User: What shape does this take?
Amino acid sequence: MSEQNKALVQSWFEEVWNKRRVAAIDEMLIDEAIVHGLDPAPAGNDRFKQFHAAFCNALPDLSVRLEASVAEGDLVAVRWNVRGTHRGDGLGFAATGKTTQFTGMSFFKVKGGKFVEGWNNFDQLGMLQQVGIVTLPPAT
Assistant: This one.
């Protein structure tokens, strides 16, 4: 079962993120699913689709590469890398045209061949710095 769950996660990143196939969200995520780490945590497909649309608007050429995955029982953990160009305002600020590359990790809970819950953590600060939205004072 763990290998099937890993394959489902790989399909999620390929279909939902790399191919931007919105129908895959309904195919792989139960409607009552809770996705932690996306503020606020979207519950259900419609809320996740809103997040997905906003992120894809902001980085329309984004590509996700899975770096590693581990599965045990109904849980799958993955480490991933995203690259894209900030060309839209989907994140709430005007496009800068700058390229970003950032890493993150996700945990997926699978039941009956679909995702029921997820936890996400990614380098949002690094992404915002690279696109020029956040600047930090120089280190002293």
